[in-house]
Amino acid sequence: MADRIFLSSPHMSDEGYEREYVKEAFDTNWIAPLGENVNGFERELAEKVGSKAAAALSSGTAAIHLALKAAGVGEGDIVFCPSLTFSATANPIIYQNAIPVFIDSDYETWNMSPKALEEAFEKYPEVKAVLVVHLYGLSADMDKIMDICNRHNVTVIEDAAESLGTYYKGKHTGTIGDYGVFSFNGNKIITTSGGGMLVSDNEEGIEKVRFWSTQSRDKARHYQHSEIGFNYRMSNIVAGIGRGQLKVLDDRVAKKRYIYNFYKKELGELDGVKFMPSNEWNEPNYWLSSMTLNGKVRPIDVMEALEKENIESRPVWKPMHMQPYFEKYDFIGEGMSEKLFENGVCLPSDTKMTDEDLERVVNVIKGLWR
Ligand SMILES: *Cc1c(COP(=O)(O)O)cnc(C)c1O
């Protein structure tokens, strides 16, 4: 059996940058949830995306949780959230005892539909915060979304977990709303094995998040707590991996784009195939090359044929309003996210793939049309 081709797996730099930073942490015994790598990673990531401040945390989920808390979201508050996303976007709303209202996608972006968002504001004018996701590294239509949110004066949190390296009209995703979230989980475009970052121009907000993430210890000699705390800080080892990975982010984006263009050229003309939209205002990181199938060949056919050849692929996210846990919450839209789920498939987009690997994938898929 040929070697397995993965959807998206960790890819350390050839230069060994990550090892250097981690070695430094070992050599100085800074094996702790603080240290020069944590500070350095925050500084370097904030600079890369063009944000004033950043807090390094244990996961992207933790970053979403503390962003909601910073936005003042608490018990019984309503939060708008795209339905078509990974559950990690929605779960922290529940951690805060708040109420998600799921918003449909639009066809042009696969992301939050401005039209459905407008409707949601009419139904729930008291909404406390809006979570926007940039799915698969495609940016949402932020001008339209920000325009609506600004009119209602509501905090916007961008879940940019999948979109590090993606720009919307020249601005990095995650820096357009009030808070931006990045993830360094194993399958993301760069990884630290696990970790997250919250960015914002609100330096006070980020300072507060650092405070909450280290158990909310008041400035006192003894241990004193006036607020609930969390153990959400990133470790200095993990941050060292992140600093090294950040140096190769541009290379990873270039390779992801190469993969997307390869697939599009080879498969884009097949009957019923439509690749994920890359609008002209969108500079995606192409984290996962994805397509919809509207003809005879179904996503399940593609996934089964690839699996037989030891190649990983997967469906587009199952919408939150269709999930057993979340289906009791309201959904605003016309079923676009359901259609994307039914017709969508994510192709292997691992940056370690060779041209030979890419040929293997497209040959299996083309075979289904013969
Ligand atoms: C990966 C991911 C997260 C969660 O990040 P973790 O670091 O795994 O907690 C959140 N939202 C989206 C859209 C993701 O893909």
UniProtKB/TrEMBL annotation:
Question: Catalytic residues?
Answer: 188
- What are the GO BP annotations of this UniProt entry? polysaccharide biosynthetic process
CDD domains in alphabetical order: AHBA_syn
What UniProt keywords are attached to this protein's entry?
Answer: Aminotransferase, Pyridoxal phosphate, Transferase
Q: Does the keyword S-adenosyl-L-methionine apply?
A: no
User: What InterPro entries does the annotation carry?
Assistant: DegT/StrS_aminotransferase (IPR000653), PyrdxlP-dep_Trfase (IPR015424), PyrdxlP-dep_Trfase_major (IPR015421), PyrdxlP-dep_Trfase_small (IPR015422)
| Names of the cofactor(s) | pyridoxal 5'-phosphate
On this chain, the residues bearing N6-(pyridoxal phosphate)lysine are 188
Gene3D superfamilies listed in its UniProt record = Aspartate Aminotransferase, domain 1, Type I PLP-dependent aspartate aminotransferase-like (Major domain)
* UniProt cross-references to Pfam families, sorted A to Z: DegT_DnrJ_EryC1 (PF01041)
Quote the protein name from its UniProt record: Aminotransferase class I/II-fold pyridoxal phosphate-dependent enzyme
Q: State the organism named in the record.
A: Cerasibacillus terrae
